[in-house]
Design a protein that fits this description.
2 copies of one chain form a homodimer. Chain A is built from 9 helices and 10 strands. Chain A is of the alpha/beta class. In chain A, the strands form 2 sheets. Chain A has a 6-stranded parallel β-sheet, with helices on both faces. In chain A, strand 3, helix 3 (75-84) and strand 4 form a beta-alpha-beta unit. Chain A is globular. Chains A and B meet through strand 5, helix 6 and helix 7 of A and strand 5, helix 6 and helix 7 of B.
Chain lengths: 284, 284
């Protein structure tokens, strides 16, 4: 496995693979790799001859007062995990290598970034789309892999790729969960043992939504109330949002129709946790 | 010569050239081709085996009240000129093909777009950078060619390419001028015969700047006054701006130092005309 710290080095490695006619897959990460990332890498491995993992804690997607400084960093074990899972090259650039002395250019996606997490993390998605545009241009992959856990991110990136005619495919992979149902996330490291148990209520609230929809309830207000009730079982969970939106436009709904995204963001101890499921109500 | 109306068609043509190992050059235009464009095409021809010319009057770079509707369109003669100059494929998409039903994604460059024309055409450069990002992603060229006449555009695009790590080179070609000194432009078509003579004052004012710098004057205020005086010889010329800025940062200067950009924008009859020169004062 190669490790490239510079744009030039990763381009040279990927360029050689491309000249060999290999299909290039990119898994963009912020490191602190876990089973969710491993699942993305395995999926990439199955459809691509050459797999690139980028590890870059992107400062421009963190807001003031967010967890940039304490975000978990574990490059050595990340590299070992990549090596073990058959990654071809890890691109782990410095902030300076990625942004130089002054970045003036931003990629923004309107509307979709105003919903859900966008309301609570101004500038977050601008940082995500900008760094992804950069990574896509650096690596020139045929396909990039993202997790459904960050549903809004995946939708925003797909839209950017489509609107800007970027010549790559975006594949969204299912959320990986712990036995309790808790979505695997680098930020779970912030949780104490008891908080980790409480955090399982997030997925429980999403399952509640699915149950209600499947049993015929279509009033969004009633479903959200029931979801909030589930989350309320923990006195430590502070709800940021619980929403049911159209799974494509992310627009709010009054009635559940077609494919909807049920999504929640909560604060628990030092962590901000998000999770979601897509429910197909089958009523168009 | 091929003519492609769809993204798929131009990609297929360019992809074949790429597989033959050819260097791909892109000349992005809004049509109404003239000697300036021909010079870009000739330069492309000299360094590229495969030359793509895009012809697209990009609505997102026109502001409200600007000349989108009456912008000169002459596809048939444009195609003949391209054919004659050895272009390999013309990409002439519809607005729908380029933007679909709703574009949500924008590429913006800060700071550099706040100077010169950016002050008078809000949103203009956002439209330019967005459509260029799209064209670069569609064509996947090795190099794209722009004219020095649109100096700020060239600087903004170069910055976008560098900031977003776009894998292509930007080449800026010298301004082509009529015998009178008037910079060749599609918008010269808006000028009557007498206005066309008066328009030569724009370049005369720029030459005045060069003369003064070369004779040792370094006070920007004095130079701009003299330039305005030259333009004032025509009662029909309405000055939008006359500026002397740093040729890289586009920041305003009080004293001429190093490479400076002298730039003017005027209204004359139905036309808005811009022109510029770079003067190297050689004093860092």
């Amino acid at each position: 496995m190669d490790v490239a710290g510079s744009i030039e080095a990763v381009r040279s490695k990927v360029g050689a693979a491309r000249r060999r006619g290999e299909r290039i897959g990119l898994v963009p990460t912020m490191g602190a790799l876990h089973a969710g990332h491993m699942s993305l890498i395995e999926t990439a491995r199955r459809s691509c001859e050459y797999v690139v993992v980028s590890i870059f804690v992107n400062p421009t997607q963190f807001g003031a007062g967010e967890d940039l400084a304490k975000y978990p960093r574990s490059l050595e074990s990340d590299l070992a995990m990549c090596e073990e899972s058959g990654v071809d090259v890890v691109f782990a650039p410095s902030v300076e290598e990625m942004y130089g002395s002054e970045n003036l250019t931003w990629v923004t996606v309107e509307k979709l970034t105003g919903a859900l997490c966008g309301r609570f993390r101004p500038g977050h998605f601008r940082g995500v789309t900008t760094v992804c545009a950069k990574l896509f241009n650096i690596v020139w992959a045929d396909v990039a892999f993202f997790g459904q856990k960050d549903a809004q991110q995946a939708i925003v990136i797909k839209r950017m790729v489509s609107d800007l005619n970027m010549p790559l495919e975006i594949v969204v992979c299912p959320t990986v969960r712990e036995a309790s149902g808790l979505a695997v996330s680098s930020r779970n490291k912030y949780l104490g043992e008891h908080e980790r148990e409480e955090a399982a209520l997030i997925y429980e609230s999403l399952r509640k939504c699915r149950e209600m929809v499947e049993s015929g309830v279509d009033e969004v207000k009633a479903i959200i109330e029931a979801m909030r009730e589930v989350l309320g079982k923990s006195p430590d969970i502070k709800i940021e949002y619980v929403e049911i939106v159209d799974a494509e436009s992310l627009e709010r709904l009054e009635r559940v129709r077609g494919r909807v995204l049920a999504a929640a963001a909560v604060r628990l101890g030092a962590a901000r946790l998000i999770d979601n499921i897509v429910v197909d109500a089958g009523r168009e």
